[in-house]
Specification:
The structure holds two protein chains of two kinds. By secondary structure, chain A is of the alpha/beta class. Chain A contains 21 helices and 23 strands. Helices cover about 40% and strands about 20% of the residues of chain A. A nine-stranded mixed β-sheet of chain B has the order 2-1-3-4-6-5-9-8-7, sandwiched between helices. Chain B is an alpha/beta fold. The chains are: A alpha/beta, B alpha/beta.
């Protein structure tokens, strides 16, 4: 099969002069449950294999089958992998949304569509490529039941020809995707070729988009951040995992189960070095995680906003009694059911102070698959070092979408098991009280059941430094003051903010998590299109370090970008900052349920700058 | 308090097979009302663990919230304890035995803690057959929040403010048997002999033990006409001390033969009828156990004794096929996969 790019034959194309190479977005519109996932992953993977930076986003309804779903692939030679609002190439397979999808396109976009939908009459400023999918698939796939799936592979073949995605890479990606299922691979290969050949003879190239091999993905991987969290947890030596299914966090534990079975079973005995339990609800999953953490295991649970709410009471107990556990929060739109399959950064504020009474928690906020891997490991170290629940705040956009990432590095530090009492320490201290601040950093020493060290009674009721029941005013105050001191110590231990300083910039950004990708691109847009220079600080944890203050001091206006309505991170910043600094803060808020895009950020900043 | 390692017993003191004296099995002084059934149960727990020669280092004590849930502080002072949140001790216990399957957990809960807010977790603890001795100190009311109805209260029973319970009680023993608990027994806090032997048998069992112990609450009694009733005492008490006054009652003590029924007058003047199950009773027969519970309940009696046992079912921790070393003690070399493993994962994602 020929693998040369289609465009080479089309030098006579009217658009040849305005060719757009390695910079476009493809949107595939299908029906939930129609099995387009393989075709979409083959498409993104083959672009990736050709060395082109890509990202893939699934936009799906809260439904199992039958409703519209969109998969968007962005290819970008500059490495911008955040969401791009505009669609350049639409693959319209879903009759229900086709018309609306076409009407929403910008002029100049191209549409590959199922011929019977007759979309070409809708607009005259688009390029249309009609494809008789049913006619093409029938001879390829005699089994009518499989046709629905195989049909999707045909559009991959079409795009291969139209965009110039090498056929050999498509086949390789297909092999990677379907693995050992030889029959399925063969069937899909035929479908690919049928699509390719159809385009070759029937669809003269009339759009400007095409790909060219480049070298920007070497050494990189394609991964969902939920899988990155799972790998991080395994490499952090997690031994007790408890969870309750909830979108978008379920795949954290499901992937973890697969990896743990592969890599965490004792070779000689065949026995597990871990326990993973699907709990009866989130109250139980956090309870089990705390029980395990108290008894000395590295434990975790993964959930989303509704589960976080249910964990509130136990989290407060964990904070006050000083029990480690890691909680992964893959955020989604709330409240309660909210939009369960749409993304948001809406749990930041409530999680930072989750529970009643005086509480504040360590939050780690990764922006990428790499950081999901690394900060998950860090979370386990911090949970044990600080003897407290630690939250990893990711979101649906990160967790359930496909990201390009640097291959994960093998950890270069041993596990930090924190201040565990042992015979030597006990001797050195000359006695032990569970909640004594021996070192002045607010962190006491702890013993765990079965370690032979003195025992203590872990109680949520008032206790003194020795762990004894007490309702004395000074005992209570000493204890919560020490907890505050411990939190101050955490400022030096959490991952630092990352700063990109432009010495000439008056305007700056503060962002966190998945908003990073839009901000990075928006900064370039502002500079290139409006001459606005900006600095950027990416928060990676709560509590913040003192660098936040210095950063704000250097700038006149600081835009805090986040994906929620109420400027939750800005509220947390306010708690830390002096009034003069607070006055500099402005908000860029995006809360549609879709991942934030660069254009929305740059437009909003320009609008506010003009005010 | 529990931060000290046990001291060597004084010479001449009675010690058990691991050379510890009874004192080692005690905890801090009780803060429950004098005469509360819960205190009698604490005493039996202390004796049972002492007599069985259990190493306190291997025991973990867990509880929810309530008067009953305070009691782990009053026994086994050298064991680790975890006072959890209301009704959610089962999850904590489950997590702890996952972390270290060699630990021997004893959980103490109240009937409110277990059968109201905690029903969900209780159900799943029993269903999973988590190895634990789960004691419900059942007084048919909420003690700690001052006398509201609990779901184990009998139909027609009355609160001090006159509210009458018109819902049927939850029978925790029947529920536990149904759910898959492998050791289910009922007893009375005042029946020293029976409770002691049930506790010792429970210690020897590996699996989920439910021990439902009827345990009178001395404070929230409302027996009209009784000079010791709450109302009477309240009327005759210093008004400032209204809620802090605790009437002093003696423990109720009963002793009776298998097959017989014993009427026990509770502190609030109400009566319970305890029926000790007969000697020929086969506790391995699930259906017989359930019908016994139904029959006695119909007659307004509580069947006491070992109701059901299934010694051979795998416990939850056995089922998980864990390595022998407790998960909490595994070294880094075991729990962190090799560089090659990570490389392999990365290769697959390339
Ligand atoms: C989430 C929550 N809700 C309510 C309470 C208040 N509360 C404390 S103890 C208790 C009932 C205890 O009754 P029971 O379990 O029967 O124990 P008893 O005191 O009778 O031994 C309640 C409702 C609480 N501590 N936590
Ligand atoms: S209130 Fe009732 S249950 Fe609580 S300690 Fe007093 S007697 Fe016991």
């Amino acid at each position: 099969m020929s693998s040369e790019p289609a465009v080479q034959d089309l030098s006579a194309s009217p658009n040849a002069a305005a060719e757009v190479v390695n910079d476009f977005s493809i949107q595939v519109a299908t029906v939930n449950g129609s099995g387009s996932q393989t075709a979409n992953l083959v498409l993104i993977r083959s672009l990736f294999q050709m060395g082109i930076p890509v990202s893939g986003k699934n936009l799906f309804p809260s439904n199992i089958a039958g409703l519209p779903t969109w998969y968007t692939i962005r290819a970008n030679k500059h490495g911008y992998v955040g969401r791009k609002k505009e669609i350049d190439l639409l693959v319209a397979m879903n009759a229900e949304t086709a018309k609306e999808d076409v009407l929403a396109l910008d002029a100049g976009a191209a549409v590959v569509y199922d011929e019977p939908l007759k979309l070409q009459d809708l607009r005259s400023d688009l390029v249309f490529y009609p494809v008789p999918f049913d006619k093409l698939v029938a001879p390829v796939c005699p089994d009518a039941k499989l046709r629905r799936l195989v049909r999707n592979m045909i559009y991959d073949g079409i795009l291969s020809r139209l965009l110039g995605i090498e056929m050999a890479e498509m086949e390789r990606a297909l092999g990677k995707q379907l693995g050992k299922k030889a029959k399925a691979v063969a069937l899909n290969q035929v479908a690919l070729k049928v699509g390719y050949d159809f385009a070759d003879t029937n669809l003269p190239k009339r759009d400007p988009f095409r790909v060219e091999r480049m070298n920007a993905t070497q050494g990189k991987i394609l991964v969902e951040a939920n899988a990155a969290v799972a790998i991080g947890a395994m490499m952090a030596g997690v031994t007790v995992v408890t969870w309750y299914p909830i979108t978008p966090s379920s795949t954290v534990c499901e992937t973890l189960i697969d990896y743990m079975k592969l890599y965490r079973v004792d070779k000689e005995s065949g026995k597990a070095t871990f326990a993973i339990v699907q709990a009866e609800d989130e109250l139980a999953s956090i309870g089990m995680a705390l029980g395990a953490g108290w008894a000395g295991a590295r434990s975790m649970t993964a959930t989303s906003g509704p589960g976080i709410s249910l964990m509130s009471e136990f989290t407060g107990l964990g904070y006050y009694t000083e029990v480690p556990a890691v909680i992964i929060d893959v955020q989604r739109v709330g409240p309660s059911t909210g939009l369960p399959t749409r993304t948001a950064q809406g749990d930041i504020l409530s999680t930072a102070v989750l529970s009643h009474g005086d509480t504040k928690h360590i939050l780690l906020i990764p922006n990428s698959a790499e950081e999901c891997y690394e900060l998950t490991m860090t979370a386990f170290d911090l949970a044990e070092r600080f003897q407290t629940p630690v939250f990893v705040m990711t979101d649906l956009d990160l967790g359930m979408n496909t990201w390009m990432a640097d291959a994960f590095k093998y950890p270069d530090k041993p596990l930090d098991r924190g201040k565990r009492l042992d015979a030597e320490t006990l001797k050195r201290l000359g006695g032990w009280g569970r909640y004594e601040d021996v070192d002045g950093d607010g962190i006491p020493y702890r013993s765990v059941p079965g370690d032979g060290m003195p025992a203590y009674f872990n109680r949520g009721s008032g206790h003194n430094a020795r762990g004894q029941y007490s309702e004395r005013a000074d005992d209570y105050k000493n204890n919560v003051d020490r907890l505050a001191r411990k939190f101050e110590t955490a400022r030096q231990w959490v991952p630092k903010e990352l700063v990109d300083l432009d010495p000439e910039a008056e305007v700056a950004f503060i962002a966190y998590g998945s908003s990073h990708w839009a901000v990075e691109e928006a900064r370039d847009q502002l500079r290139q299109e409006a001459g606005v220079k900006t600095s950027y600080m990416r928060l990676r944890a709560y509590p913040f370090t003192t660098e936040v203050e210095q950063f704000i001091d250097r700038h006149k206006r600081v835009y805090v970008v986040e994906q929620n309505r109420d400027a939750q991170m800005l509220s947390l910043l306010k708690l830390d900052l002096a009034p003069g600094q607070v006055g500099k803060l402005r908000s860029v808020l995006y809360y549609t349920g879709l991942p934030i895009d660069a254009r929305s950020v740059s437009d909003e900043v320009l609008a506010q700058e003009r005010e | 308090m529990a931060t000290e390692t046990p001291a060597a017993p004084a010479p001449g003191k009675k010690v058990n097979r691991i050379n510890l004296d009874l004192q080692t099995y005690r905890g801090s002084k009780t803060t429950l009302c004098a005469g509360c059934g819960h205190n009698a149960i604490t005493e039996r727990i202390i004796e049972a663990y002492f007599e069985m020669g259990v190493d306190p280092q291997r025991v973990i004590k867990l509880s929810g919230i309530g008067c009953s849930s305070k009691s782990p502080a009053y026994f086994l002072g050298t064991s680790h304890g975890f006072n959890a949140v209301h009704g959610r001790m089962p999850a904590v216990a489950t997590g702890a035995v996952l972390a270290n399957k060699h630990l021997c957990p004893i959980g103490v809960s109240g009937d409110g803690d277990t059968s109201a807010i905690g029903t969900g977790q209780f159900v799943h603890l029993m269903r999973r057959n988590v190895p634990i001795i789960y004691i419900v100190e059942n007084n048919g009311c909420y003690g700690l929040t001052k006398g509201q109805l609990s779901p184990t209260a009998d139909i027609g029973s009355r609160l001090k403010n006159g509210v009458v319970n018109d819902l049927p009680p939850i029978d925790l023993c029947a529920l536990a048997i149904q759910l898959g608990a492998t050791f289910v027994a009922r007893s009375f806090s005042g029946d020293k002999k029976q409770l002691a032997s049930l506790l010792k048998a429970a210690i020897a069992h590996r699996g989920a033990v439910l021990l439902d112990v009827i345990s009178p609450c001395v404070t929230f009694n409302d027996h009209e006409g009784s000079t010791k009733s709450y109302a009477y005492v309240k009327d005759h008490d210093d008004p400032l001390g209204e809620m802090t006054f605790v009437p002093f009652f003696d423990d109720i003590v009963v002793d009776y033969e298998p097959g017989t029924t014993q009427e026990v007058k509770m502190h609030d003047g109400s009566r319970v009828y305890l029926k000790k199950i007969e000697e020929g009773y086969n506790p391995r027969d699930k259906v017989a156990a359930l019908s016994l519970l139904h029959e006695t309940a119909r007659k307004g009696e509580f069947a006491t004794g070992l109701l059901y046992i299934e010694p051979d079912r795998e416990s939850f921790t056995d089922l998980l096929n864990l390595v022998d070393t407790p998960l909490s003690m595994l070294p880094e070399e075991i729990v962190r996969p090799s560089r090659e493993a990570l490389d392999q994962i990365m290769e697959r994602l390339r």
